[in-house]
């Protein structure tokens, strides 16, 4: 695609594919209904995204270039930390509903480090008069930077944002369950007494001892130690259940680790990467699967958008706050951070690398957040509407910021 403003054109491309998803989700078309979107999201989560992350990371990240890119994971983490804080402030100011608090923080924290940079940065390399050198060299390094960005972003997204949205969704479900439970006072007291004496098998014998008449649940030292150990075991079990470690080690996170191993271990890389590699068909298969991730995510977001337009609206102040964070505040903070890092010698002098670091702060929210809300069944309609407006605005703001960033690094 050739365009005088590649960033604006690519944002419009995202909107067009989302519009197609909305069309396919119409009742009289019914190709992309609720059940179909849910199954597609599961496929994206377990198959397409991991394939996209591992295949691109494996063929572009090497032991030679990984050392010079050490600041990139820290830079992306800073965008998540600052964005989460700003999202928390928006929740306080707008008094957003409980089930949207985690979503708002996630939308402010996580930028689209996957689909957009994969389209945008190589597009700039192909443009005539690109400030980043020869197209072939620019494209090679661009893919390395973008692949690492996507891999690190996937780890942060499926650990930080996934669990932030999960906690928010779980809290609202627990409130609903508590409101639906109608226990009277006597039943509550009876339950409490049952819990208090859960391990008390000797309450009846305790009444035979006059000096222990005030201690109906007396325990000897050995029994006390057993009780303490049982309590610790239960608390540890409860912690690991609530931590949802399976979600932290998400498929995309595991795929990123696999991609790093393939790229950084030369014998494994020679076995899988390149036209002459004995097992190159495995890498080719992963690349083919990964290419399906971006359009499928956009289609499902478009389907969710149709549901969101039919459902309850979103607070205007909430939408404006998220747009202000992603399109104005974070890019300004990013300029200060990257300029400071360059001054301190943390970032090397490659203009393309500096441009990608700056771009992390100006991207619209990650489309995968729509997949996360779909998995939890909470906030998907609101998320789709917010994504629509943020991407509509980004078609203008991202073009302006990218032009400024190119001038800044040149």
Provide an overview of this structure.
The chain has helices at residues 6-24, 34-60, 71-94, 98-109, 115-126, 135-180, 185-196, 203-206, 221-243, 245-248, 251-264, 266-272, 280-290, 293-310, 316-344, 351-362, 368-376, 380-409. The chain contains 18 helices and no strands. The relative contact order is 0.19. The protein is globular, with a radius of gyration of 26 Å. Helix content is 76%, strand content 0%. The protein is mainly α. It starts with 5 loop residues before the first helix and ends with a helix. Residues 175-184 and 194-219 have low confidence and may be disordered. Helix 2 (34-60) packs across helix 17 (368-376) and helix 16 (351-362) packs antiparallel against helix 18 (380-409). It is a multi-pass membrane protein. The chain crosses the membrane at residues 67-88, 100-121, 141-162, 247-266, 286-306, 318-346, 352-372, 384-409.
Question: In a nutshell, what does this entry contain?
Answer:
This protein has 410 residues and is mainly α.
> How many independent structural domains?
1
The gyration radius over C-alpha positions equals 26 Å
* H and E string: HHHHHHHHHHHHHHHHHH
Gap from first CA to last CA: 24 Å
Q: How much beta, percentage-wise?
A: under 5%
Number of DSSP helical runs: 18
> What structural category arises from helix and sheet content?
mainly alpha
What's the count of strands?
0
Layout of SSEs?
Layout: H1 6-24, H2 34-60, H3 71-94, H4 98-109, H5 115-126, H6 135-180, H7 185-196, H8 203-206, H9 221-243, H10 245-248, H11 251-264, H12 266-272, H13 280-290, H14 293-310, H15 316-344, H16 351-362, H17 368-376, H18 380-409
